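Annex B. Sample input.
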Amino acid sequence: MKEIILGILADVDAGKTTLSEGLMYKSGSLRTMGRVDKGNAFLDTDELEKKRGITVFSKEARFSFGNTGVTLVDTPGHGDFGGETERVLGILDYGILVINGVDGIRSHTMTLWKMLKAYNIPVFIFVNKMDRIGTEKIPLLNQMKVSFGEGISTFNGGGPERMEEVALYSEEMLEEYISEGKIGEEKLRKAIAAGKVFPVIFGSALKLDGVDTLLNLLDRYTTAGTMLSERKRESKEEGETGFSAQVYKITRDRQGNRLTHLKITEGELKIKQTVKGLNQEGELWEEKADQIRLYSGGAFEAVAKASAGQVAAVTGLTQTYAGEIIGKGPGAGEAGNTSEPFLRPALTYRMLWAEERNTSAVMKAIGAIAEENPGLKPLRKAGEKEISLQVMGELELDILRHLMENRYGLQVTFDEGRIIYKETLTEEISAGARWEDRGKFARVTVLVEPLPEGSGLDFACKVKEEKIPKPWQRVIMSYFTQKGHEGQLTGSELTDLRISVTDGAGSPGQVDGEGFRLAAEMALKTALVKAALRGKARLLEPMYSFYAQVPRENMGRLMSDMDRLGGKYSLPQVSEDGQTASLTGRGPMDNLQSYRMEVIGFTGGKGRFLTTLDGYGPCHDSEDIISKIGFTPDEIPMDEDVEEEGKPMGWESTSAGNAELEEIFLRTYGKSKRDEQLLRERALKGTLRKSEEITDFPQPKWKDKEGEAAAENLTVIDGYNVIFAWDELKELARENLDGAREAFLEMMVNYQGYKPGRYLVVFDGYKVKGGTGSKEEYENMTVIFTKERETADRFIEKTVFERGRKQSITLVTSDLPVQMAGMGDGAVRMSAAEFISEMIQTSEEIRRKLAKINPKGTGNRIKL
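Annex B, continued. Sample output.
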């Protein structure tokens, strides 16, 4: 007997649960059919479901028919519980989409169809309630063909009603039909499994009409669904076998035991078997499966083992989460579906409770519920007695109130809620950033490209391994994929973008993955700031798909309202009797979420307005929303001249992990205002002169005596920091660090001969074993090599401390902690990039002046 996992999906009130009851009754697994309206449906086991008459939680039921064993997974129909439905899709072999024959294809029906297609699930379609007056097959079939596309074909108990129509959906079937006059069952099975043919059955679940036909088709035209996914097949090593499973949800039984619901994709799981995985913090765990349960409705059978293709609930696993792959075979510890969920919450609410309840205890309780519904994303701000939650709609809030009170005896309320906005870009943009720390550096360039609506975030690494080693590429990709990223308009989550690493470099053998990660983080933030400043960022808002049915005379009012509220719609459809008309379309959730009551009002209760979340679209009033949110974007120094040449930008004044220090730095001292003022004062005193004013090549006198040196400006330079910030020198340093250092010192000889003052260049000898340090004189320049276990930073800090109060000091480094220490002792800061720019400018001035003195180009030549 083959085993399949079959999901059943539908919009509210389509008769999904009734069809499930019918399938189990006709297969012999139920003696009598339950009824949703009577509260005795086999799969609606929760008291809340019985009370409300709707499905809230997905459930499993087991039955067999013919040669097929079926695990049927019933899913919620209401759009507010779409996340629960989507979590089931990752484990299905086939799906049944139930359509209400009275209403036809509504907005949420289309959402479910798109989800099934996105997850590549073969679909059987059951059009229900065909016993009602006014339902007709042909109009419904045509509506499905228009809405769903190719492959829609009516089937009877034996196969397609129109064999010639089905043959057109596949070349193989067409060839067989032309030669044989029919299509074999095997080819039909393959076409259905490949999503080329979608069998349609018309019937009435309540009256069991069409249920036998559906069972026969499931038996004849499905195949066992125990194959590994393509991704796992690729990662599977030759000859290796082992248990692995896809986790799709977490629940708790009535005794409070934590249950991990999973589909076994390979091997088998036995009681007390040790399995492993990675928790959401990325830590490896190993735990034992205490009990294995096969659920059917509210009851379960405890078994000794479960095999590939089966769905089971396991106790004893405390760190699993929905979407994870667990086991001991290849792929264990990976996320099963790493793409962005199709349905995501669009509203955020603050949860409030009585003062006497401890905030940490409340957070623990809601955290346990969030394990079962990962979309909630509870967030508690430090020091505040409130918790923010993301939800799909108000009905979900009612369920949360019920769960918190019934499980934990806690009464909670919610505020009015706020819309969750998102951000994207309208054009691609590139940016680079450099991380530096004590002579080490890492540079990363990223490209951010817009993707079609609903794509989510995609990440790629297009840089060669010789530029960024493979392990460090994985560190960057891990950062990108595991962390949420915010835009610069409102601080909202980014979506519909591809973020690619396109270039990079690092200190040979020195910089590790953390340095590259920090550089990648800076580069991405720089790109987003650039996009916002140049008007390339766009604010997105959640959208509703809607289905409206009103008396014909009210259609004009409805269409006028949709125009006013920003809705887009297709041509209205008039019913066969001409009494009613329907309209389908899409519009901003913010405008449409309360419109249902208006429809009820102006139609006298005869109209309906149904909505379902349908992704995100451009915000209809973005300027007003951005202004109201009042988000303060990041400020990042950018070199526009470099950027205009098409080269990646630099972010030079940055050090490892010092974002917080930089914030304090800017908050305390401002944006270099103090440095600029000091430089202006020194220029006025004649200590420093602009290069344009120099007409000769002065060699300033230096008397290294106490007191006389105070009149001279001292420039203290972190040598390796500058070398690794200079692209030409850093390339040389990769091959010959001594050569890069000598080249820099030769340039410094030319520079200090042209610029008045005294120069102290410090090189780090911290790791030179047995090094005693050294001091060398080059004209007005002193070169220091620190001794073993003495860093250049420490030497610089000590020098500035000793001399900073006695003479004017300019400190050249991009290391923020050293800059801050120097500024505290009176020094002027200058980044490595600024100093390099000044050296290059000085070199050009020297060339121009030499050209005037010796136009023929003979005589002294200065190289830079």
